[in-house]
Amino acid sequence: KAGVAMATQLWAARLAEFLRVPRGRLARWLAGEEPPPQEVFLDALDVIADGPYASPERRRPRVAILHQNKR
């Protein structure tokens, strides 16, 4: 169990560094206490998309569908 806790702490530290945010702020986002900024959310999706099953040769553009407020 100590190994899992250490791995989780390391993972959180690496993710916070990648996203360029303090670990406390990342913890609040992960706990659902506040939403992350859209740019950070998209960066997090890149982490998932580039996961262990992604092809290293694959380079893809970032695409997001943004809804504008109707006035």
Short structural summary:
The protein has 71 residues and is mainly alpha-helical.
Explain this structure.
By secondary structure, the protein is mainly alpha-helical. It is built from three helices and no strands. The chain has helices at about 1-20, 25-30, 40-50. It is flat.
Task: Record the SSE blueprint.
Blueprint: H1 2-19, H2 23-30, H3 38-49
Which features characterize this protein?
71 residues; mainly alpha
Q: Count of DSSP E strands?
A: 0
Largest sheet: none
Net shape: flat
- Find the structural class using helix and strand composition: mainly alpha
